[in-house]
Each structure stands twice: as structure tokens, then as C-alpha cells.
Write a structure and sequence with these properties.
The protein is an alpha+beta fold and 327 residues long. The protein folds into two domains: 5-115, no CATH class; 128-324, Alpha-Beta Complex (Maf protein), CATH 3.90.950.10. The protein is built from eight helices and twelve strands. It has helices at residues 35-51, 69-84, 117-121, 136-146, 172-187, 221-231, 299-302, 307-324, and strands spanning 6-9, 14-18, 60-65, 89-93, 96-101, 104-109, 127-131, 151-155, 191-200, 242-252, 259-269, 285-287. The radius of gyration is 29 Å and the shape is elongated.
Length: 327
């Protein structure tokens, strides 16, 4: 039984299509002046078939005349929709052709020379990631990591009218969720919140979720460090001053289940502060067995090994899968 042959014919376009064992990879030009363009269109169609081979069956083509790749794709997609009862749409965005089905992007064809990013994306190219903190030190660490991944990083200082979110949770995850999910709903943006803290073994995990207010609600970093040294004043052996920094990261976006990752950074508590970098308990936190505090590391060194860096590494691994899930 011979498969049905479909035809499109106009002044500058004439092509035939057949599903199954049809014409095969044939492309015939009747206009020598268009030979280079003909080759380009045919190579584009082969790329289209290759990209969509696991999603739909595209027909074999015999092309006699062609003026526009968009016309050819429109003809082909019309056949596919009719044959497979699909709802694939062809969209033109700033000269780029997009195949979309039920809000899922299937294929993008860029014209020779590409397209302008501002016109294609309709504004800012980089997606904004709002860090749920007013702490510029913490923001610098996240910015150094996420700007390399292509994100524009903002923090709550860019949104002075947003209310403070009370950290009423008793775990790191509860507090991070409260901040990320509340601010995401208020702004409509993708929000990253962390709840981080220092946990000292001999103190039963304190200061933990109270790390930022260990010495009181409005305590400074110096006051918190002094409080910690006071609590450990009778612990004379370094091995008994084991501790670790913990981070839980939560990424929230409206109408989507939040992404949660966590990581630890082991070390010890020093007998006196050392170093001028970092913030919080960094001057007291001895990194592993190195004998150096976190405050003696450069930002680049810290971002290769810290609790946040380890948590972000997990986040980067999970993030594409999280983004691809239906909301």
C-alpha cells in the first residue's frame, strides 16, 4: 500500500511530503541562484528531524522550490498535528522559530547571525535570583557563586518595603522555608533562602538555629563570638572543641514545590579569634585539621569548601531537575 503524498505549492514554494519509506533524504533545487540557501534550509530540516526524533515522526520531503524555512516547517507541523492529533505551534520570536506544545518548548531555530538577546528575551537576559537576606557579607558569597552560573543576584536591601520574616522555626529547614516561600509569594520571584549556623558538639549543637542571636536578639558578631568563648572557657583540649557549620538552602518559586539541600563543614573552635575575612563565627572556626580559621581564608578559598559552597554544589546538581518539573 502506497503512503499518502502531501503537497504544498505556491509561486515560490513547492514541496511534497510522505511519512514512512518515502523520498528519503532528497532535496532538489530548480533555481540555481538559490543553491546555497537551499543547502542551508535542507541542513536545518535535518537538524530539526534529529532534535525531534524521540518526540514525533517528521515526514520525508521532496523540495522543488523554497522561499522560507518557516513556511516549510509550518507545512510539516500541520501534517504532524493532523496525523498524530498533536497541538504543536510554530512561533516566531525576533526572527527565531520556536516549536511549542502545551507550554513546552520543543525546538528553537535561529536565523543566520543569531538574534538580539534583548528582543528575544523581552528585557533582562539574566534571570534574577533573590537572596532572602540583608546581610551583604552573605550576599557577596552567594553572588560570587551564582553570577558565574548566569544569574543576576539581588538581596532584600533591593526591596526595602518587604516585611521582615520572623524565624520562628526550630530547625534550619523550617526557618529557610519560612523566608524563601514567604518572600517568593510576596514578590513572585525565585527566592533562595538559607539558614546557617554553627553547631558545637560539646554544647549539644548550640548555638545552632540561634547562631545569629546567641548573645541576644540584636547581638553583634563580636558579642556572639565572645559568648561562645565564654561557654567553652573550661574546655581546654582542642579535640573536645569539635564543631561544624551547617547550611540548609531552600529555593522557592510561586506555585512550585520548594527545593531543599543541606551540607556541613567540619572543624573546631579556636581559643581566640584569628583573621579579618568573613563574618559571624569565621574568626573562631578552625577549618578541619588545617589550624587556620575561616576568617583567614580568601573569599575564593572559602567558596571552594565552605558549608554554603558544598550546599550550593548540591543545589546546582539538583536545580535543573527541579526547574524541569511541572509546577
Amino acid at each position: 500500500m502506497t503512503n499518502k503524498i502531501y503537497e504544498y505549492k505556491a509561486d515560490k514554494d513547492w514541496y511534497l511530503a510522505q511519512f514512512g519509506d518515502g523520498f528519503g533524504p532528497m532535496f532538489q533545487r530548480f533555481e540555481p541562484k538559490d543553491e546555497d540557501r537551499g543547502d542551508s534550509f535542507w541542513n536545518d530540516y535535518i537538524s530539526l528531524r534529529e532534535a525531534l526524533r524521540n518526540q514525533m515522526l517528521l515526514p520525508d520531503l521532496f523540495v522543488a522550490r523554497i522561499s522560507s524555512f518557516a513556511k516549510l516547517v509550518s507545512f510539516v507541523i500541520g501534517l504532524v498535528n493532523e496525523r498524530e492529533n498533536r497541538e504543536v505551534q510554530l512561533l516566531n520570536r525576533s526572527g527565531a522559530l520556536l516549536l511549542v506544545e502545551k507550554d513546552q518548548l520543543l525546538f528553537v531555530h535561529l536565523p543566520e547571525g543569531g538574534v538580539l538577546t534583548n528582543s528575544f528575551f523581552g528585557g533582562e537576559l539574566k534571570e534574577t535570583l533573590l537572596i532572602a537576606t540583608r546581610n551583604e557579607g552573605k550576599t557577596r558569597e552567594f553572588r560570587a557563586i551564582f553570577e558565574k552560573l548566569g544569574y543576576k543576584v539581588e538581596n532584600l536591601n533591593d526591596y526595602p518595603d518587604l516585611p521582615e520574616v520572623a524565624e520562628t522555626g526550630t530547625t534550619f529547614e523550617e526557618n529557610a522555608r519560612l523566608k524563601a516561600e514567604t518572600i517568593s509569594q510576596l514578590t513572585g520571584k525565585m527566592v533562595l533562602a538559607d539558614d546557617s549556623g554553627l553547631q558545637v558538639d560539646i554544647l549539644g549543637g548550640l548555638p545552632g538555629v540561634w547562631s545569629a542571636r546567641f548573645a541576644g536578639t540584636d547581638a553583634t558578631d563580636d558579642e556572639n563570638n565572645a559568648k561562645l568563648l565564654h561557654e567553652l572557657a573550661m574546655v581546654f583540649e582542642q579535640k573536645d572543641r569539635a564543631a561544624h557549620f551547617h547550611t540548609t538552602l531552600v529555593v522557592a518559586s510561586p506555585d512550585r514545590e520548594s527545593l531543599v539541600v543541606e551540607a556541613d563543614w567540619p572543624g573546631y573552635i579556636a581559643f581566640q579569634p584569628k583573621g579579618d575575612n568573613g563574618f559571624g563565627y569565621d574568626p573562631l572556626f578552625l577549618v578541619g585539621e588545617t589550624g587556620h580559621t575561616s576568617a583567614e581564608l580568601s573569599l575564593e578559598e572559602k567558596n571552594k569548601q565552605s558549608h554554603r559552597a558544598l550546599a550550593v554544589a548540591k543545589l546546582v546538581e539538583e536545580f535543573p531537575r527541579w526547574q524541569s518539573k511541572q509546577s
